[in-house]
Amino acid sequence: SNLLLLGCELTASTKSYTFQVDEEDDSDHILALSVVCLTDGAKDECNVVEVIGRNHENQEIAVPVANLKLSCQPLLSLDNFKLQPPVTFRLAAGSGPVHLSGWHRILHRDDASFEEDDDLSEEDEEELPPIMPAKK
To answer: Does the keyword Ribonucleoprotein apply (predicted)?
Structure first.
């Protein structure tokens, strides 16, 4: 698997950053968000960072992950909060700049760690009743 450093900055002029992967890519991608922090030029105001992703029903959900303020909490460690792309980071309140850093991990399908997952999906298929041809 490959591990890439991820970093982006949210500001008054660039309020959102979307991370997406190529639809054709059959690797599994995991984003791990480690730190969200205010950087030079931030005013003493509440800066709310939201993560916008999709739930298992493919509905868009926005979750606030950080509320930063210079005087009380300029930095928040998210302890490698794991997300699945596509995902958007948005500055929902405040003007930043807020810097987000973390990791982007690419797990290739042929990695040994996927054998277990494959077994599970085969079992699920076996439990489905066979489709019978319609009687004419």
So the answer is: no
Parse the chain into domains and list their residue ranges. 2-107
* CB distance 104 to 94 below 8 Å: no
Residue 52: name the closest of 31, 29, 28 by CA: 31
Q: What is the pLDDT of residues 76-101, one digit of tens each?
A: 999 999 998 889 999 999 999 999 99
Alpha helices, DSSP H, located in the chain: 115-127
Element containing residue 92 per DSSP (H, E): strand 87-93
Q: How long is the chain?
A: 136
Kindly compute the dihedral angle of the four CA atoms of residues 19, 34, 115, 106, in this order, to the nearest 10 degrees.
40
Q: Is the peptide bond before 129 cis (omega within 30 degrees of 0)?
A: no
List the Cα angle 123/128/131 in 5-degree steps. Answer: 135
User: Which of helix, strand or coil describes residue 128?
Assistant: coil
| Whether CATH 2.60.120.340 fits 2-107 | yes
